[in-house]
Design goal:
Elements: H1 12-24, H2 29-37, H3 48-60, E1 64-68, E2 76-80, H4 82-93, H5 105-111, H6 120-142, H7 150-173
Antiparallel strand pairs: 1-2
Length: about 180
């Protein structure tokens, strides 16, 4: 049938795009990428290539409407359709039972015997900077400069606590080589 959309498997990247469009309203891929970098990317990394391609894939399946400017740069703007809103709503209502990934190259190096004093200070500083950045968002929200939903505030506070914990943990590890691996 003409106009019938083929069903596709929705991925975590799909839900990031759907959620961001629900949050931001009609947006270009460039705007989505820019907002992603300052929000979700901090705790849920999305590969750049797949994120940029996902709006077109979702539009082809009927979850988004795509509009292309007639002149100029022919910018593409995407907006949620009723199907996209329904898919997002259904996903948000599903209980989450999967655990997140724990992928820290520094921890992998420690596991295999690296000397933490070679990079622990840099790791501690990095986590401290991330926490400070999140704390500045919290301060801006307290002044009314940034609006945070309850869910976004929870994620922000969790990010602050997590990065302050990692900062402290890396400072504890900055004491020299670990004991040898057990055989």
């Amino acid at each position: 049938m003409a106009g019938r959309k083929e069903p596709i498997r929705l991925t975590s990247t799909s839900y990031v795009v759907l959620g961001m469009l629900d949050w931001l309203g009609p947006s270009t891929p460039y705007r989505l990428k820019r907002v992603l970098a300052g929000s979700v990317q901090d705790f849920f990394p999305v590969p750049h290539g797949s994120f940029y391609a996902e709006p077109a894939r979702l539009a082809a399946a009927g979850y988004l409407e795509e509009r292309v400017e007639r002149g100029g740069r022919r910018r593409r703007t995407f907006e949620l359709t009723a199907s996209g809103r329904e898919a997002l709503r259904a996903w948000l209502e599903q209980p989450e039972t999967r655990f997140g990934e724990f992928r820290f190259p520094g921890m992998l190096k420690l596991f295999f015997g690296a000397d933490p004093s070679l990079f622990a200070e840099a790791q501690a500083r990095h986590h401290g900077e991330l926490a400070a950045g999140f704390e500045s968002v919290r301060e801006a929200a307290s002044r009314g400069e940034v609006e945070l939903t309850a869910g976004r505030r929870t994620v922000l506070e969790t990010g602050i606590e997590l990065h302050r914990w990692w900062e402290a943990r890396w400072r504890e590890l900055d004491v020299g080589p670990p004991p040898p691996l057990l055989e």
